[in-house]
Design a protein that fits this description.
InterPro entries: HAD-like_sf (IPR036412), HAD-SF_hydro_IA (IPR006439), HAD_sf (IPR023214), PGP-like_dom2 (IPR023198). The chain is an alpha/beta fold and about 230 residues long. It has nine helices and six strands, in the order βαααααβααβαβαββ. The chain has a six-stranded parallel β-sheet, with helices on both faces. α1 packs across α4.
Amino acid sequence: MMNFKNVTHCIFDMDGLLLDTETLYTVAYNSVTQEHGKTYTWQHKAQIMGFKSTDAVQTIIDMLELPITAQVFEDKLTTLYQELFPKCNLMPGVERLLRHLKENNIPVALATSSSQESSDLKTQRWKHIFDYFDHKVYGGSDPEVSQGKPSPDIFLIAARRFPDNPDPSKCLVFEDSPNGVQAAVAAKMQVVMVPDPQLPKHLMKDATLVLGSLEDFKPESFGLPPFVA
């Protein structure tokens, strides 16, 4: 059993962790790349997970050598997102964990690389769940987040915006992406990773704890109130 440090605050990523959107991103990206005879694969996905949208798009263009600009790519994606994102579902264990933390007065924040506009589209069916957050940091549109994951900016900003401005070591991050894990480690925070089952094992090595689902999380491992049976 690993020795985890006790924490007082929790910070959550969104895409692929709270919401099942990663498959939708894959559908959308492939809709664009296949117009040019190229396929967006897991190999590409593992590299851009957690990136801001603009960085992700430019990286895909570079990797696949697509003959289009980032703006054209993003415009096509925006149309696809309008159709796809409102359909996304919660990942297992999300509602139970967030409600538990809120009921026990554990401060919680959202730290997503998505813009607020994109996030609002994805969460419209789940507003009652996302109301549990004390505050939200939208990396894709927040002017304070100058660098996206794997830089630590978004998590340090999320911590600072708690009223009591906790030390980063007192914050526990929940992530699904390797870039997000790197960002949390760089912020000197512990990080629980819930990766996609297809993610190569070597990309999970820096996480404090790796779980198959948020349903498997035991809050007491990090000094948080346990679930009541």
